[in-house]
Write a structure and sequence with these properties.
With 344 residues, this protein is α/β, with parallel strands linked by helices. The chain folds into two domains: 2-78 and 318-340, no CATH class; 86-306, Rossmann fold (3-Layer(aba) Sandwich). The protein contains twelve helices and eleven strands. The protein has helices at residues 14-36, 39-45, 51-72, 107-121, 147-155, 165-175, 179-183, 185-195, 234-243, 274-283, 294-303, 318-340, and strands at 2-3, 75-84, 87-93, 127-133, 137-144, 218-224, 246-252, 259-263, 266-270, 288-289, 308-316. Helix 4 links the parallel strand 3 and strand 4. The radius of gyration is 33 Å and the shape is elongated.
């Protein structure tokens, strides 16, 4: 613990001075009582409270004053504070098939709207990231509590060509807390094998890889029409997610049998396949949802684990000392009122 105003600690000397004064006052009261009546008769005239009853309220007052004196020195300490360790990556399919209008106003716009609504449902302390996946997974926002940045990232979504659900899962694992360090080379190797490109550079770890018990559970929410036609095997990627305690919740966007839409001047059948999305969710102990209604999004939120942890943060502790001091003062006053009918 450090003090930004150490000279104010001189007020701590007030506590022994007050204690000495209390002792002197008690002796004076005993002398006055001896003058009032003979010692053998004094106990018959009044009932004296026990010594610990007399001392306890005074001890509470002195402790409160001591804490106030220390608070005046403005101590700074590393205080453990509760933090929400939950992290969620929203992965949105941005292949051309997501322009289909069998889900109004379009599959992509429905996913964008649902992602915004989900961000409004969860506590602001929950870290939410965003990535898009078509030929590759592209991280638009790492897990963050900045909801404005998330809104701006959603506005930047643009459709491309193919669909790589496996690439989206791998990129989500790469940026979720502790997963890249836990999975190590296996994650990098699968990214290289599936995409033919090296993974994006990550900061060199300054600590050894965490164990499975040390990493907090995380989740991926995937919006897609379920048709995978490029990149890493999504089920191998889902296996890594399950191994690193990441549940994947999949939300299907499309109608059974698909729909027909015009792409580059030609009419094309755009399929919808829920089976792959259901398998991914089952493999990772997540859940598949068939719509983006508000009720379904609330069910997704209820499924997500909110993990609370403790993190040491350097901050001024004066407010804590003042609060505890007030409790001691109130306790001393309450005891004095109950036992002696006076405050203090």
């Amino acid at each position: 613990m450090e003090f930004t105003q150490p000279l104010m600690l001189a007020w701590v000397g007030l506590v022994p001075a007050l204690l000495l004064g209390y002792w002197a006052l008690s002796r004076r009261q005993r002398r006055m009582a001896a003058r009032f009546a003979d010692a053998r008769l004094f106990d018959q005239l009044i009932v004296r409270p026990s010594a610990w009853r007399r001392a306890l309220p005074v001890a509470c007052y002195l402790m409160g004053i001591l804490l106030l004196a220390v608070a005046m020195a403005r101590p700074v300490a590393a205080i453990p504070l509760p933090i929400n360790r939950a992290a969620v990556m929203i992965a949105i399919d941005t292949s051309k098939s997501m322009m289909a209008t069998d889900v109004q106003p379009s599959r992509l716009e429905a996913a964008r709207r649902a992602a915004r609504e989900f961000a409004d449902l969860v506590p602001r302390s929950t870290k939410i990231g965003l990535l898009s996946f078509s030929e590759y997974g592209t991280v638009l926002l790492p897990p963050s509590t900045d909801r404005q940045a998330l809104t701006e990232a959603l506005d930047r979504l643009q459709t491309q060509s193919a669909t790589s659900m496996g690439g989206g899962i791998l990129e989500a694992l790469r940026v979720l807390p502790d997963r890249a360090r836990f999975l190590g080379e296996r994650l990098d190797r699968l990214i290289r094998q599936g995409t033919g490109r090296p993974p994006q550079p990550m900061p060199l770890p300054s600590e050894p890889p965490p164990t499975l018990d040390q990493i907090a559970p995380a989740s991926i929410i995937m919006f897609s029409d379920g048709v995978n036609n490029f990149g890493p095997n999504p089920y191998e990627a889902s296996g890594l997610a399950r191994e690193s305690k990441v549940k994947i919740y999949t939300i299907g966007l499309g109608t059974p049998g698909g729909t027909v839409m015009r792409i580059d001047g030609q009419l094309v059948l755009v399929p919808f396949d829920a089976s792959g999305l259901e398998r991914i969710a089952t493999m990772t102990e997540g859940r598949y949802f068939s719509s983006t209604t508000s009720e379904e999004l609330r069910r997704v939120y209820r499924q997500l684990s909110r993990v609370m942890g403790w993190e040491r943060t350097r901050m001024e502790a004066s407010f804590l000392l003042v609060g505890v001091s007030a409790l001691f003062m109130l306790a001393g006053g309450g005891l004095s009122l109950v036992w002696f009918r006076r405050v203090p």
